[in-house]
Specification:
Blueprint lengths: L17 H9 L4 H27 L19 H13 L7 H15 L10 H9 L1 H11 L15 H27 L4 H15 L3 H11 L12 H27 L2 H9 L4 H16 L1 H14 L9 E2 H8 L9 H30 L6
Length: 366
């Protein structure tokens, strides 16, 4: 018999691979899908082309006043570049910007490596970000120590203030939420009643009312001569408010753990706190990562409400800058810039949560 030699497999045709293959399979697999895809592509064309022209093609990026943007049909990004220090630092003294910039670098150094799977020192950096980082940044920004000029909190603002409020709220709300969630499921009536009352009270009022009460009403109930910094009162109010929502998210995770896990912990002779810290809470927190991050994102966006108590976050500084007659009508550019800043941080948190879910996935996903 003649020996037949197997030939190597041929590559699939061009129409079945690459961009063409993907389009045939996902966009033009049937006549109906083809028609719908063409309609959507046409709508995107009508929408994206004017946006790209306004943002990039017909826009102006350099200039000192509105004369640089006269006669153009695109965006006046020169306004953003001219006011960028105010948007980033608020009314903080220009000579002391290096202190805020140092904190920005430390923030990036602490959290940036968390997005890289193979970075070897993520745990020490995480511990640093929760312990030494807030202390270092407080002494740097507030001053009054080590020869640094003291800067009142009324001058703090812009993106730096937004990140500060969000960071403190996120770091403080999570442990408080865990304690409240455990207390709500406690077998001790006094603790359970207190936690339920706390959670329902703070969830029953809007955050804007909490900030207003902390800024305007709280000083009326304090003894003469006693007062708290406005920013400190806002941080406490935001932390308590978000802790209540965080507690409900974590309670949902605790209720999702099978009863057998609790019984197994008791069978091993573990105490309540050991069973919670070693067995129950790690599983519960893993299950509710999307809910936790969703609460963090809502907190980050709610920082804009501090405007009502006189604190100028990034959105407030944008609103103040767009009324400058030296620039004319630049409200659209200002709000687009503020929205882009919020989107970058919120999208970053969302992507990190997805990577964390994938890393901690142990078979619960369906």
């Amino acid at each position: 018999m003649r020996d037949f030699k197997a030939l190597p497999d041929l590559a699939p045709p061009l129409v079945a691979r690459g961009v063409i293959g993907w389009a045939r399979e996902n966009l033009f697999s049937t006549p109906l899908n083809s028609v719908m895809s063409l309609i959507v592509i046409y709508i995107l064309y009508l929408t994206l082309v004017p946006i790209i022209d306004w943002v990039f093609v017909s826009s102006v990026f350099l200039g000192d006043d509105k004369t640089a943007c006269e006669g153009i049909t695109g965006a006046c990004w020169a306004f953003i570049g001219n006011r960028l220090p105010i948007f980033a630092y608020g009314s903080y003294p220009a000579a002391e910007y290096w202190r805020l910039e140092t904190c920005f670098v430390l923030l990036l150094f602490s959290f940036g490596p968390q997005f890289f799977e193979k970075f070897p020192y993520k745990l020490p950096l995480g511990i640093f970000s929760l312990t030494l980082f807030p202390v270092i940044c407080y002494f740097l920004i507030a001053g009054g120590y080590f020869g640094l000029e003291h800067v009142e909190t009324e001058k703090w603002g812009g993106l730096a203030l937004t990140l500060m409020i969000a960071y403190v709220g996120i770091v403080a709300a999570l442990p408080f939420g865990v304690v409240l969630a455990l207390g709500r499921r406690s077998d001790m009536p006094v603790i359970r009643t207190f936690c339920i009352a706390f959670i329902e009270l703070w969830r029953g009022v809007p955050l804007i009312s909490v900030l207003f009460m902390s800024s305007v009403m709280l000083p009326l109930f304090l003894p003469d001569g006693m007062n708290f910094d406005k920013l400190l009162r806002a941080l406490i109010g935001i932390t308590m408010f978000q802790s209540a929502y965080m507690a409900e998210v974590i309670r949902g995770g605790l209720q999702a753990i099978p009863r057998g896990q609790y019984e197994a912990a008791k069978a091993l002779g573990l105490s309540y706190w050991k069973s919670m810290s070693l067995i129950i809470l790690p599983q519960a927190l893993k299950l509710v990562i999307p809910g936790i991050v969703n609460t963090f994102i809502a907190l980050f966006k709610d920082t804009t409400l501090v405007l009502i108590i006189g604190l100028l976050d990034i959105l407030a500084t944008v609103q103040a800058a767009i009324t400058d007659p030296a620039w004319g009508a630049v409200a659209t550019e200002g709000y687009v810039f503020a929205a882009a800043c919020f989107w970058v941080f919120c999208f970053g948190m969302s992507r990190y949560s997805i990577k964390l879910e994938q890393k901690l996935h142990t078979g619960h996903k369906r």
